[in-house]
Amino acid sequence: MKQVTLTEGRYLRAGEAFHFARRTLEPGPVRVLHDHDYFELFWIADGRVNHTINQAEITLEAGDGAMIRPRDLHGFSPIGAEPCRLVNVMFRAETATHLLARYDASFANRFFWTQAALPVGFQLDPTRRGLLDRWADDLEAGPRSLVRIEGFLLSLLTQLIPPTADPRSEIPPWLTAAIEAARRPEVFRMGAQGLIAAAGRSHEHVCRSLRTLLDTTPSALVNQMRMEHAARLLRGTDLSASEIAEACGLENMSHFHALFRRQFDMTPRRYRVTHQRDPVQPDDGLLAVRGANFN
C-alpha cells in the first residue's frame, strides 16, 4: 500500500499555529497510509470507520477519537454505504514540545506523548461530546493563534479526558489492543471474559494490569463500554429497554438499570427524553408507547 509523509507547510500559513478541518470520508478501502511532521487530534462526528493505525485496525464510531503523533502511520476506511464525517485539528510539533516541557508532571507518557505502540484513543459520552463540539465551533471560527490552540488542548486534556494512568507507567500494546477490541459488541456481550480473551493473558494478569494502570477491573471496564453502547442505542433507535439490555449482553433488567444510572446519573428513559430529538417526527408518541419500559 502506498505511504506518504505530510508536512505542516502543506496546511499552515506563516503565523498560523493550527489547522482545523471537517472532513467527509466516502466509502471505500484505505488507498494511502500517511504519517506527518505535526501532531493531530481527530474524532468521529457521524458514521463508522475502520482506522488503520500502525498495522492495527480499530473500529471507531461517533464520539470516538485519537491523538495522533508524528510517527504514527494511519488511514481511514468508512464502514457501510454511508460516508463518515470527522473533525480534525492539527498543530505544530513545537507546540507539543512546549506543553510537555511546561506540564511534564501531568503529561509525561500520556495523551500525545505516550510511547506505546498505538496512540491514545478516547470515547466521549454525549455530555462531553457536546462540550467538545462547542469548543470546536469556537476554535474553527477564530484566528489560528498559538494561545487559542494551547487553550483548546489544555481544556481537552484536563477536563474532557482526565489522566487515568500513573505517569510512570506505560499501557502495554497488548492491553491497549484488548481495550479497543472490547469496544465491539461481539466482545463486550461476553462480559469480562470477552476482554480477558481479547487480551490473550491470564485472568490474574489482566486484573492486575488494569488495577495498576487504570484503577479499574475487567468487569467495570466492560460495563462502561456496555453502557456507552446502550446510550448510543437510546439516542439513535427506538429499541425497548429489554432489547437494548440484550444487545449489551445483559439479561437482568435491574442490573442494566443500575449500571446505566451509575454511569449517566439518570434512568434510560430520562436519557432518551433528553438526548433523542427528531425535528421531523417528534418522539412524544414514541416515548408514550415505550415509556413503561424505561422507568
**What does the average pLDDT come to?**
86
Shape, per Cα inertia axes: globular
Which architecture of the largest domain per CATH? Answer: Sandwich
Q: Tell me the Rg in angstroms.
A: 20 Å
Q: What's the tally of helices? A: 13
CATH topology of the largest domain: Jelly Rolls
> Ends: how far apart?
52 Å
Main sheet specs:
5 strands, antiparallel
Indicate the structural class: alpha+beta
Query: Regions with pLDDT < 50 over 5+ consecutive residues?
Result: 164-169, 278-295
Total domain count: 2
Order of strands across the biggest sheet? 2-9-4-7-10
Query: Helicity level, as a percent range?
Result: 40-55%
Structure, explained:
With 295 residues, this protein is of the alpha+beta class. It has two domains: 159 residues, Jelly Rolls, CATH 2.60.120; 122 residues, Homeodomain-like (Arc Repressor Mutant, subunit A, Orthogonal Bundle), CATH 1.10.10. It contains 13 helices and ten strands. Strand 5 and strand 6 form a beta hairpin. Helix 3 packs antiparallel against helix 4 and helix 9 crosses helix 11. The C terminus is likely disordered.
What are the SSEs and their pairings?
Layout: E1 2-6, E2 18-25, E3 32-36, E4 39-46, E5 49-53, E6 56-60, E7 64-68, E8 74-78, E9 84-91, H1 93-102, H2 104-107, E10 120-123, H3 126-141, H4 146-160, H5 173-181, H6 185-188, H7 192-199, H8 203-214, H9 218-236, H10 241-247, H11 253-264, H12 268-275, H13 284-290
